[in-house]
């Protein structure tokens, strides 16, 4: 059965025990911070920070509200990161969440560019001893909430939900939590007329579901989350929702907010990653070749040329699009 | 807490005042949340909009230090409403279980902020004879159950708070009329016998020159509303440290022996005199007057301490005990004053960090310079241990010899802790201490220290040596906390068995007991504190077989007030206790005071009169809470011509800041991410990451006036010191209009010091040496400051 986390913004007191419990379980190091005029810290998600509470003050009609929202991987059903990953480093767990295979990850950052919530972060391969990655070469890899996969597989509650004093973060069967969430939303409507459940249907259903007191935008969440896409580069079988989105023209090759240097990096690293995968025999049906094989070097050269061409093509398209936008 | 954490979930209205429960006691919000899920209303009254306010249905900003005005207004509102709409109140409770109808001496008077009996030369209420009940011929207090007699407490209460009309209260507190009225209406709705209201408070209530009277103001309200002794009611002090309740129970304070027995003073030269002084008398047959049993507890305590040496002939070792000067004050502020003057030469600080946590830190750090020796037992080298290398100090000039004893953390030692709800919970040792065998448990340290001291006195003699050499100290070099827990529980010395509980303690030397309140926690049935039965046999979450609760495992004290005179619960939905007429026994929680039915015994058994005190003659600064301004304040007292609590001792008059130079109200607090002086949390990278720097919260108007933007460094100054921190300009603070004047708060947490991973100035550099006259609790919450860009 699919598991999920239910986060209730009406019950969160921002004690941030979940932020600390996450770091404790995963042995993630602290980030150097300063007070920037807010309680919120660290300032953003980071390779060492997979879960954080966002603080937001709203003043209206002489009264003030202080909203606290969880920011972490949403473990989407329609998880675009799984499908844009060039090295097959992302996968769905049968319990419904999305995990990274750190050994395969090449840190290309494509998952960040396409993530509708902008969640993963790239950092050094050896940030935490808990992932015990045996990597061929020191490199950067992607990090995000792992849904405490080891705990969950052993029948335990994820660290964040386990430590939550108020019941704002709950863990359980997804179907049960959706029901619970609906009941709770009804109960708080009197106090919060804009209350709603977020994540039941979005992107095929998130595995971090929110009880929101206000519209998603106010909590810093996209009203209707959209993903970008990436040109197919192999023949893996894409899910229907993905193909449909492509057919409907909903997907762009260069998602909003992505930077050209990411693209350069990701294209280059994807090529490198493919090569490395070939070299190590990680691609099914292809024997390990070793670096000495001239075919690898040929492929590498082609990869660099291909990456350059792809970048040129993308930037061209973007400029054309921008021109079109200006015209309209 | 009169009730306990889980019981908060039974409330209909939760008033959090003088507390930021969500941040400083996050676990309390498990139960606040549960209550709210069932429809409870949450009210938060605080100068700052905090993470607690963020959850509240009603948030009322208040000027720091004006709680009595706020609650006085509520008292007036309720008294008027009781007269107009008695049906909305539990009149049987008010009549039978409070002193509302009891008559007070006709000489009692109150005029312009001063109660009768005041002596201005000593700044004390020397003569409290007019604060007493009128007695009839048999010595029983007189009463008028119609509440009409002008000398009855109800009428005196009405007269006293007649000045606290809503406009005046609004002018004093800065809270709007509308909000005041809303809070009063919602909380007063718990006056109905089928509704429960609780008050959760903490240091925001107590750390004022009127701190004790702030709590008294809550008591008056809760008694008027019949909220004491019931499920979901009570007055609930949220204790700041996991075991501070246990520490207080075991005589943390200078004026108590364990179990809140008064400390012997020079007024009690003999045991007989002492026992007489601690034995209150009541002629009323319905009064349980539980404190009449105190001699049994005191003699049993002496037997526990002095064993076979304690005999009837030597007053059970009473003369070994030090006697404080009658009326003397040995609390925090005077101790540090005495240190500075060189009277006190040595200091042991144990899990305490006065260099950060004490008021007026500059002065208290300097006082440490005068010590010959200092012992610090802690997990880390704290600011107190490192006072000699603090910024601005020259280690060469400081002669104090410092000993740092590395202690081990909670998980590396066995023993009990007592939480705010009075639950004593046994904890096992689960790991070896970090850094190995060098770290020792507190019990190991104290036992070995005392063994060495005893050996020294046996060899060399010394003043009052017998008090030390005769001490029964059988714990050995590797002490077992179980031995200590059994000693605290007590023994029947005639048969050598553990006491079942304190009901059979004796004053003839045949029983021993280290703390009568804990008698019953570790008896022949075993260590009851170690119980972990998660099953609840009640309908109100008593969990009576989980751990053990003092006294006698009674989970809600004064629970006798939850039933009518026949023993039937006022609120049948939430019964705490119930008299079963057929079985002829009490059902539910452990009944307060025993006896049969309701009518046989008054419920407030710890008072000689047996009923709740709306009029409280036990206070040193007046029987009714009266609003006075804090020591440092930007305004004149609107409610009387008496500016400062007239019973307060002013230690350093020359250090008083004036509003012309320091126009804003400074207030200090804690955040959830750090723990008290920060010794533990500023040494943990994950917590340092969350709250790295000292910060200062100000409202947007003040920020605009001073040209301060969020995130930039500011300097806050008081007459005693200055603090640099990052500004947080926030909508959560608002300027308040007080008596026509715009008042700004400058709010800053005090967790920082010069040791640890993250460092900064402690806000206590700004606070002062002045405190409440009943408890000497320093006025950390209100003082005057100025602020500017750094």
Short descriptors:
heterodimer, A: 328 residues, alpha+beta, Alpha-Beta Plaits, 2 domains, four-stranded mixed sheet, two-stranded antiparallel ribbon, 9 helices, 33% helix, B: 790 residues, alpha/beta, Dimethylsulfoxide Reductase, domain 2, Rossmann fold, 4 domains, six-stranded mixed sheet, five-stranded parallel sheet, 32 strands
Characterization of this structure:
The complex is a heterodimer of chains A (328) and B (790). With 328 residues, chain A is an alpha+beta fold. Chain A has two domains: 1-251, Alpha-Beta Plaits, CATH 3.30.70; 259-328. In chain A, 33% of the residues lie in helices and 16% in strands. In chain A, strands 8-1-10-9 form a four-stranded mixed β-sheet. Mean pLDDT of chain A is 82; it is low at 229-235 and 252-257. Chain B has 790 residues and is an alpha/beta fold. Chain B has four domains: 1-240 and 553-627, Dimethylsulfoxide Reductase, domain 2; 255-322 and 480-524, no CATH class; 332-419 and 423-466, Rossmann fold; 653-789, Beta Barrel (Barwin-like endoglucanases), CATH 2.40.40. Helix content of chain B is 23%, strand content 15%. Chain B contains 20 helices and 32 strands. Chain B has a six-stranded mixed β-sheet. In chain B, strands 3-2-1-8-9 form a five-stranded parallel β-sheet, sandwiched between helices. In chain B, α3 (67-84) crosses α7 (177-188). Chain B is globular. The relative contact order of chain B is 0.14. Chain A binds chain B through residues 11, 13-17, 19-20, 23-24, 29-39, 41-42, 57-59, 63-68, 165-167, 187, 191, and chain B through 22-23, 26-27, 29-30, 32-33, 37, 49, 51-55, 57, 59, 671-673, 685-695, 709-712, 725-732, 734.
């Amino acid at each position: 059965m699919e598991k999920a986390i239910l986060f209730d913004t009406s019950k969160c007191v921002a004690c941030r025990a979940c932020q600390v419990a996450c770091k404790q379980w995963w042995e993630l190091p602290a980030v150097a911070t300063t007070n920037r005029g807010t309680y919120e810290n660290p300032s953003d998600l980071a390779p060492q920070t997979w879960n954080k509470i966002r603080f937001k003050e709203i003043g209206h009609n002489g009264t003030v509200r202080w909203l606290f929202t969880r920011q972490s991987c949403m473990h989407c059903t329609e998880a675009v990161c799984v499908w844009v990953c060039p090295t097959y480093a992302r996968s769905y767990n049968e319990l419904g969440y999305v995990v990274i295979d750190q050994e395969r990850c090449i840190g290309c950052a494509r998952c960040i560019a396409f993530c509708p919530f902008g969640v993963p972060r790239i950092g050094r391969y050896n940030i935490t001893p808990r992932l015990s990655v045996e990597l061929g070469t020191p490199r950067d890899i992607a990090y995000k909430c792992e849904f405490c996969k080891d705990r969950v597989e052993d029948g335990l509650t994820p660290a964040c939900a386990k430590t939550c004093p108020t019941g704002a973060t709950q863990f359980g069967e997804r179907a049960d939590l959706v029901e619970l969430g609906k009941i709770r939303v009804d109960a708080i409507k009197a106090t919060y007329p804009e209350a709603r459940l977020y994540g039941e249907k979005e992107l095929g259903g998130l595995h971090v579901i929110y009880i929101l007191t206000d519209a998603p935008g106010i909590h810093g969440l996209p009203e209707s989350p959209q993903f970008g896409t990436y040109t197919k580069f192999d023949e893996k079988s894409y899910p229907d929702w993905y193909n449909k989105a492509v057919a409907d023209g909903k997907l762009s090759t260069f998602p909003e907010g992505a930077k050209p240097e990411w693209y350069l990096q990701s294209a280059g690293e994807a090529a490198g990653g493919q090569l490395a995968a070939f070299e190590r025999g990680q691609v099914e049906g292809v024997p390990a070749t070793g670096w000495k094989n001239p075919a690898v070097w040929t492929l590498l050269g082609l990869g660099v040329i291909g990456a350059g061409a792809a970048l040129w093509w993308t930037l061209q398209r973007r400029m054309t699009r921008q021109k079109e936008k200006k015209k309209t | 807490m009169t009730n306990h954490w889980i019981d908060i979930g039974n409330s209909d209205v939760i008033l959090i005042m003088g507390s930021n429960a969500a941040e400083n006691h996050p676990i309390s919000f498990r139960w606040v949340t549960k209550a709210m899920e069932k429809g409870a209303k949450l009210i938060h009254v605080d100068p700052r909009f905090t993470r607690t306010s963020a959850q509240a249905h009603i948030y009322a900003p208040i000027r720091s230090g004006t709680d009595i005005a706020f609650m006085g207004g509520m008292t007036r509102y309720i008294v008027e409403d009781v007269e107009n709409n008695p049906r909305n109140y539990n009149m049987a409770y008010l009549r039978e279980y409070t002193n509302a109808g009891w008559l007070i001496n006709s000489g009692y008077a109150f005029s312009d902020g001063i109660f009768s009996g005041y002596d201005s030369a000593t700044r004390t209420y020397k003569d409290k004879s007019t604060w007493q009940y009128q007695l009839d011929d048999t010595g029983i207090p007189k009463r008028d159950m119609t509440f009409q007699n002008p000398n009855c407490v109800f009428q005196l209460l009405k007269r006293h708070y007649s000045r606290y009309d809503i406009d005046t209260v609004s002018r004093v507190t800065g809270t709007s009329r509308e909000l005041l009225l809303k809070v009063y209406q919602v909380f007063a709705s718990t006056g109905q016998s089928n509704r429960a209201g609780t008050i959760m408070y903490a240091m925001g209530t107590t750390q004022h020159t009127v701190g004790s009277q702030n709590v008294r103001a809550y008591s008056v309200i809760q008694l008027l509303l019949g909220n004491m002794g019931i499920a979901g009611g009570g007055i609930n002090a949220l204790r700041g440290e996991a075991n501070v309740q246990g520490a207080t129970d075991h005589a943390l304070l200078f004026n108590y022996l364990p179990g809140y027995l008064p400390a012997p003073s020079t007024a009690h030269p003999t045991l007989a005199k002492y026992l007489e002084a601690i034995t209150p008398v009541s002629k009323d047959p319905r009064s349980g007057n539980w404190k009449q049993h105190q001699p049994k507890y005191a003699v049993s305590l002496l037997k526990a301490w002095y064993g076979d040496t304690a005999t009837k002939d030597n007053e059970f070792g009473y003369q070994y005990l030090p006697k404080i000067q009658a009326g003397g004050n040995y609390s925090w502020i005077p101790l540090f004053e005495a240190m500075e003057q060189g009277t006190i030469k040595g200091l042991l600080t144990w899990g305490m960090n006065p260099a950060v946590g004490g008021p007026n830190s500059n002065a208290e750090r300097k006082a440490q310079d005068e010590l010959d020796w200092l012992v610090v037992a802690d997990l880390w080298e704290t600011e107190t241990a490192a006072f000699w290398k603090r910024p601005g100090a020259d280690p060469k000039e400081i002669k104090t010899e410092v000993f740092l004893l590395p202690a081990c953390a909670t998980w590396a030692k066995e023993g009990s802790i007592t939480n705010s709800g009075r639950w004593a919970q046994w904890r096992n040792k689960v790991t070896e201490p970090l850094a190995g065998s060098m770290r020792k448990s507190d019990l190991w340290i104290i036992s070995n220290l005392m063994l060495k001291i005893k050996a020294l006195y046996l060899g060399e003699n010394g003043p009052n040596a017998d008090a030390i050499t005769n001490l029964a100290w059988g714990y050995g070099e590797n002490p077992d906390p179980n031995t200590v827990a059994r000693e605290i529980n007590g023994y029947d010395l005639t048969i050598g068995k553990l006491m079942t509980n304190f009901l059979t303690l004796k004053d003839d030397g045949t029983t021993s007991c280290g703390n009568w309140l804990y008698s019953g926690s570790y008896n022949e049935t075993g260590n009851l504190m170690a119980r972990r039965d998660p099953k609840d046999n009640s309908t109100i979450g008593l969990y009576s077989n989980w751990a053990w609760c003092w006294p006698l495992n009674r989970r809600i004290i004064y629970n006798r007030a939850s039933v009518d005179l026949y023993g039937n619960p006022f609120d049948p939905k939430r019964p705490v206790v119930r008299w079963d007429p057929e079985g002829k026994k009490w059902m539910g929680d452990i009944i307060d005071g025993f006896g049969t039915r309701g009518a046989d015994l008054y419920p407030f058994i710890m008072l000689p009169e047996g009923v709740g005190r709306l009029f409280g003659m036990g206070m040193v600064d007046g029987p009714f809470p009266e609003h006075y301004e804090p020591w440092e304040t930007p305004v004149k007292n609107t409610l009387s011509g008496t500016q400062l609590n007239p019973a307060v001792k002013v230690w350093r008059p020359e250090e008083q800041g004036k509003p012309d130079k320091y126009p804003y109200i400074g207030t200090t607090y804690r955040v959830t991410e750090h723990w008290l002086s920060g010794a533990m949390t500023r040494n943990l990278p994950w917590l340092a990451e969350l709250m790295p720097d000292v910060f200062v919260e100000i409202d947007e108007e003040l920020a605009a006036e001073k040209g301060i933007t969020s995130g930039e460094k500011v300097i806050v100054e008081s007459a005693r010191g200055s603090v640099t921190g990052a500004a947080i300009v926030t909508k959560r603070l608002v300027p308040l209009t007080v008596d026509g004047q715009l008042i700004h708060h400058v709010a800053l947490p005090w967790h920082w010091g010069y040791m640890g991973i993250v460092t900064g100035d402690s806000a206590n550099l700004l606070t002062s040496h002045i405190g409440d006259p009943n408890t000497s609790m320093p006025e950390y919450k209100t003082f005057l400051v100025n602020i500017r860009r750094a």
